[in-house]
Every structure is written in structure tokens, then in C-alpha cells.
Amino acid sequence: MAIRTNALPTIGREVLDLDVAAIDEATARDLMGLWREAGVLLFRGVGTSPETLLKLSRCFGELEPHPIESIRMQEYPELICLTNKGGLRGPVYAFDGVPTYGRIPWHTDLAFSEMPNAGALLNMVEKASVGGQTAWLDTERAYEALDSGLKQRIEGLEVRFEFCTDLSKMKYHNPGGVRVGASATGFPDYPPLARPLVWKHPATGRSILNLGPLNLQKIVGMEEAESDALIRTLIDAVIQPQFIYEHAWQQGDIILWDNYRMMHSAMGHPVDVIRVVHRTTLRGVAKVGRTLPSEMAADMAQPFAAASM
Ligand SMILES: [Fe+2]
Q1: Of 3.30.160.100, 3.60.130.10, 3.40.50.1480, 3.20.20.140, which CATH number belongs to 4-308?
Q2: Distance 284 CA to ligand 1 centre (A)
Q3: What is the pTM of this model?
């Protein structure tokens, strides 16, 4: 099957008129190649059937059940349903006075895990009538655009990442917002993790960044003020519109992203607006960090060479 695509306005590509039921092995290989090059693929109007999402997802690798069992769909354990239908399952923050559900600032998934997922696919089943956009940021493009002095300065450094469900605890690029609902509870206690700030993508070998502000705490082994200044410089250089694609969803859209290379961000929507999304998760193929035993141990630890990842 010949695949036609269009570049999205900034990063990523749209795959046009794909007949998922007709995908054969050769088409799946082509789609995989496209994903490696683009980092984000948009498929519009694919529908909302779990079988279609599962068939398309399997073109890009092995699927894994999500670690949070309560959000898995009973009939399809490799699918999770993200929704506020039937009750809220996460915290609510007010932005400009509007109680908002599902706002998740820039991050990569499972950034607090040594083996994060390689990618994921979202399928819009019921779009929010207000808000609900999702955005992706290409750290490969952003890294390429850094000046050579900054590239040299960050080579070999590690960053400390921590699990975070409380936006008020974000140290960098905090979106603001006032908590108006209960805390998110029921999560395991994840220990802090050291990740290489710059590392090589396990499939493409190209340089990418671990810089998701939701989980980012500091540069390992660096004095606080210097670490803070360097992280702020990097975030200012990386979180730029030319590296970002923001998607306004339509029902039946699917978006696939590379979770090593892309940060993503969910804008959230008013609590009284319903949104239903199905998602699959592509199993991780590379260890991305190392668990840190404690704050003191993290400060004393020597950064390891990112090239050894
Ligand atoms: Fe996410």
C-alpha cells in the first residue's frame, strides 16, 4: 500500500487516508520508518474502534499493559481509557478561575522509571467541546538548534527526575493554577532517578534531551545556583514554538509519538466538559536512567557518560 503524508506545520507528519484494515507487513515497515523520521504521526478520521487502534499500534512494536491497573479496559487489557466520564480520577486545578481537569505540563511518560515506554498512541473517542488539546515538543530538533558552547557544557551531565502529581511542586516552567480538588492518591512511591541530560536515541542514534519540567529537579552533582541557571537557560532554548505541534482533536483522530524523543503536554479542559480518550503503550526497549538512593547520594554521585546508555 502506498502511503501518502503531509508535513504538519512545525514538527511531525500527517499520514493521509490510511486504511488500517488493509495494512500488511510491508506497509507496517514503512509506517515504522516514517515514525522514526518524524517522531509524531497523525492519522485523522481513523474511527474509535479498539480493534483498529490495537492493529495500528502493533505496527510500531510490542504493547504493554499500563502500570495503573484501574484505568485498563477490561475487555482490552492493552488499552486504557482516559476520561472524566463517570467521575474524576485526578486532581483539579483552577486556571484563570476555571476548574480544569487533565492539565499535565511538559513531560515524557514514565520519566520516573528506568524503563519508560518507547511510545504511545492516543485515539480521540469523545472530544472535549472546550479545550482538551495535546501538544508535542521535538527534543531532537531543539538539541540540534542549541549553540555549540551549550552543547559542550551539557554533554555527560545527568538530571534528577522525581515522580510528581502536584503542580505546585514543579520547579521549572510551572503553569500556575490553584488546586481546587483532592490530591491524586493511590500511586506507588517511586524513588528519584538520574537520567542523562543528552543521550542517543536507541533506534536512530541521534541526540535527544531528557528535560521534561514536570519531573525535573536539578543537575546531579552541580551546585544549586549553577544547576538552576543552566536548567533555566536550557528550558528557554528548548520550549519554543518552532519545536512544538499542538493538536486540536477531532473524533476518530489517532496520534502516535516517540516517548524518548518527544515531550508532550495536555492542556486539560473544564471539569464539566466530557472527554474520552483510548490509549495504547509501546513497551520500552532501553534503560534510560538509574535509581538514586537518596538526595545526599545523588549529590555525591558522579555523572556517568551518556554515550554508555
Ligand atoms: Fe503523558
Answers
A1: 3.60.130.10
A2: 15
A3: 0.93
